[in-house]
């Protein structure tokens, strides 16, 4: 089954007319995107947008062979003119299946937002799922556990992942997480980000952020073969996110796992009973995490890294170091010289080895404090130096290392 993306942008396109934002100002050439519309095997058109016929011609295709036009979401503004020769656009009711004369089957997927998703099965059995802007599947499974109850089953009656998924990855990463939880998205599923608007990051940041979710973006006019997996991004297994105070490092770390279900958030700071300011910080962190994530308040990281399980988000290594330095009494000069330094080095080496050996996906956060003012006290300088050593040891075991400055993630490795 062959798919041509006549557009990959949000309904209003990118750039927005007269919008002065940085993303719109740089959305030139291949970065410019028309509203998303998909042409399947030249016979099925999903979403009719202005200029669809011209976009098809630029991509080397014609709409002359289209036998079915389906709309996935309500279209604001004036009605789109239907090019001559095209059938009138329609919708498929949720849960219903449409069989075409060309051998394609289209089943409508219920969403938690206005509109319908479409599961398309080609004549040879390849399957893709297309979700509209702002939409995510309404449920994970039907009463019998058959995926979404919409044909999401394999040849043996069990669950089978789609070959391709096209969705609003940036706007609704939780939708991708739901699909992963249900087994609808697997390691070989080609996830294509569509409905990309001016809320997306510009340039290479878009590619990097999508890759962290196991997805990619392609320019308008791209033709893809459903079931070809060679371009599926590899999700990095170990990532360290560094940054200063209020740099956005925690948000960046959370963003890298928001398209995955059942993440274990490891909070190393504890509860600090009686500290109202700390309680407010903890509350803000919890509010922005997906509801499917669990939280563990612990500094015992090595056993977690050794266990199998869902992805870990460790926030943060700086507080872990404070805890360990307390345990070895590293703040006392005599204790430090009498064995505290050696014990701390052993604990850091143990953690680094656990990161090297882990099979889990791990995203860790740490502070970068070596570029600031030199601390006035010996204990402060000791902490600064040991945190630098810890960050270097942890980073050495990671495929990806990021430095976040003013909310911008700069790749240092990967």
Secondary structure blueprint with pairings:
Layout: E1 2-7, H1 22-26, E2 37-40, E3 44-46, H2 52-58, E4 68-70, E5 97-99, E6 105-109, E7 117-121, E8 127-130, E9 164-167, H3 173-182, E10 190-193, H4 204-212, E11 215-216, E12 223-225, E13 238-243, H5 249-255, E14 264-267, H6 276-288, E15 294-297, H7 301-306, E16 312-315, H8 317-327, H9 333-357, E17 362-367, H10 378-395, E18 400-405, E19 408-413
Parallel strand pairs: 3-4, 8-9, 9-10, 10-11, 13-17, 13-18, 14-15, 14-16, 16-17
Antiparallel strand pairs: 1-2, 1-12, 2-3, 5-6, 6-7, 7-8, 18-19
Helix pairs in contact: 8-10, 9-10
Spans of at least 5 consecutive residues whose pLDDT stays below 50 are: 142-151, 153-157
Series of H and E elements: EHEEHEEEEEEHEHEEEHEHEHEHHEHEE
What is the arithmetic mean of pLDDT? 88
Number of helices: 10
Distance between the termini: 33 Å
DSSP E strands, number:
19
Radius of gyration computed on alpha carbons = 25 Å
Order of the strands making up the biggest sheet? 5-6-7-8-9-10-11
Oligomeric state of this protein: single chain
Strand content: 15-25%
Q: Describe the sheet with the most strands.
A: 7 strands, mixed
Label the overall shape: elongated
Structural class: alpha/beta
Fraction of residues in helix: 25-40%
Notable traits:
seven-stranded mixed β-sheet; alpha/beta
Describe this structure as you would to a colleague.
This protein has 414 residues and is an alpha/beta fold. It is built from ten helices and 19 strands. It has a seven-stranded mixed sheet. Strands 15-14-16-17-13-18-19 form a seven-stranded mixed sheet, with helices on both faces. Helix 8 (317-327) packs across helix 10. The longest helix is centred in the last third of the chain and has 25 residues, at 333-357. The radius of gyration is 25 Å and the shape is elongated. The model is unreliable at 142-151 and 153-157 (pLDDT under 50).
């Amino acid at each position: 089954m062959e798919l041509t993306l006549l557009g990959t942008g949000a309904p209003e396109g990118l750039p927005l007319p007269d919008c002065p934002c940085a993303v719109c100002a740089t959305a030139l050439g291949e970065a410019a995107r028309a509203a998303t519309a998909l042409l399947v095997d030249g016979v099925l058109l999903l979403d009719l947008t202005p200029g669809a016929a011209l976009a098809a011609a630029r991509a080397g295709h014609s709409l002359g062979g289209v036998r079915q036009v389906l709309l996935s979401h309500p279209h604001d503004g004036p009605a789109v003119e239907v090019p001559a020769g095209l059938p009138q656009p329609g919708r498929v009711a949720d849960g219903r299946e449409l069989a075409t004369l060309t051998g394609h089957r289209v089943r409508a997927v219920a969403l938690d937002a206005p509109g319908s998703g479409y599961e398309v099965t080609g004549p040879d059995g390849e399957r893709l799922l297309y979700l509209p802007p702002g939409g995510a599947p309404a449920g994970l499974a039907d009463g019998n556990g058959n995926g979404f109850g919409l044909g999401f089953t394999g040849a043996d009656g069990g669950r089978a992942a789609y070959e391709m998924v096209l969705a609003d990855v940036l706007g609704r990463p939780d939708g991708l997480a739901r699909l992963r939880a249900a087994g609808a998205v697997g390691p070989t599923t080609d996830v294509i980000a569509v409905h990309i608007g001016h809320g997306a990051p510009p340039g290479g940041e878009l590619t990097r952020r999508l890759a962290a979710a196991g997805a990619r973006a392609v320019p308008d006019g791209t033709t893809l073969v459903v079931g070809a997996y060679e371009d599926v991004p590899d999700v990095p297994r170990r990532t360290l996110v560094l940054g200063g105070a209020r740099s956005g490092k925690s948000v960046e770390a959370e963003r890298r796992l928001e398209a995955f279900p059942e993440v274990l958030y490891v909070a190393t700071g504890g509860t600090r009973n009686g500290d109202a300011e700390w309680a407010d910080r903890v509350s803000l962190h919890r509010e922005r995490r997906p509801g499917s994530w669990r939280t563990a308040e612990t500094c015992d990281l090595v056993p977690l890294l050794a266990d199998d399980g869902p992805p870990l988000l460790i926030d943060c290594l700086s507080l872990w170091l404070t805890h360990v330095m307390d345990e070895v009494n590293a703040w006392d000069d005599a204790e430090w010289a009498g064995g505290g330094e050696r014990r701390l080095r052993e604990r850091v080496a143990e953690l680094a080895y656990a990161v090297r050996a882990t099979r889990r996906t791990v995203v860790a956060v740490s502070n970068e404090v070596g570029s600031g003012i030199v601390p006035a006290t010996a204990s402060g300088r000791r902490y600064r130096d040991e945190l630098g050593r810890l960050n270097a040891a942890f980073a050495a075991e990671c495929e990806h290392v990021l430095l976040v400055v003013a909310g911008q993630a700069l790749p240092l490795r990967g």
